[in-house]
Predict the 3D structure of the following.
Amino acid sequence: MSSKVYFAQTEDRQAFLQHALDRLQECLGLGRGQRIFVKPSLVSYEPYPTTTHPHTLARVLDFLLQLGCQPVVGDGPAFDAGPAEEIVTRHPLQQVCQERGLQLLNLHQKPFKKVKTGKLTLEISTVPFDCDLFISLPVLRPHRACSLTGALKNQFGLLRNRDRILLHLGWKDINLGLIEVNLAVKPSFFIVDAVESYKKAHERRHGGEPIKLGYLLAGRDPVALDCFGLELLKTKEASLKNKTPEDIKQLAYALKLGLGNKEYELERLL
């Protein structure tokens, strides 16, 4: 069985999002009063493509507010990026939220709960558990520790810093950890930005060199989205050139644990 991946080879976020959000509404039937957790990728102080493009977050929030939903927006910056509260307060994504009467939450300042996710016990933010649905807004990039960061890796930002450090240091398996977060808190829909990305690393501060891929993706299956994302990144990132999904540990775990499909059906939106 294959999963649907919506895509467009375009830089026109506004046009793509109009179609993608229509698909989201068809899939989920959003209604007035629903609390919708929206998680951008806010890794550090760096702007797009390290973090979610402000226009993407703005369009998603406007769509939800027009439906009468109650968006809850938050992320927790990386532990090595500097003071998290300062990053969240000053980031352009905060301005997007404030212009709409919302607050971009620093998840590090919100409660966490221990969740037995499978082989691991992880401390995960309570914020998405308190919402009705979850929309994830990742940016597709290569990643030195887990090969790529996209639909699956975006949920890593829900973890308490202690777990992130243990996973990055190898005391826990980082690839298994990020998959088990997704098993515990499953986003309802993903909009993946692959218009711009990096090669060699996932941030400028880690040596990432900007590149253009020129795609926007959306769908409900994070594994299918990341498998297609892998094909896009392979055209620019030497370390991924000959890789299959089974060669990428996070995707191999996701497939083994039934989190999604590597087979996908593409539907062009533009």
User: Anything to note?
Assistant: The longest strand covers residues 189-199. Helices lie at 13-28, 54-66, 84-90, 92-98, 161-169, 174-184, 222-233, 249-256. The chain is about 30% helix and 25% strand.
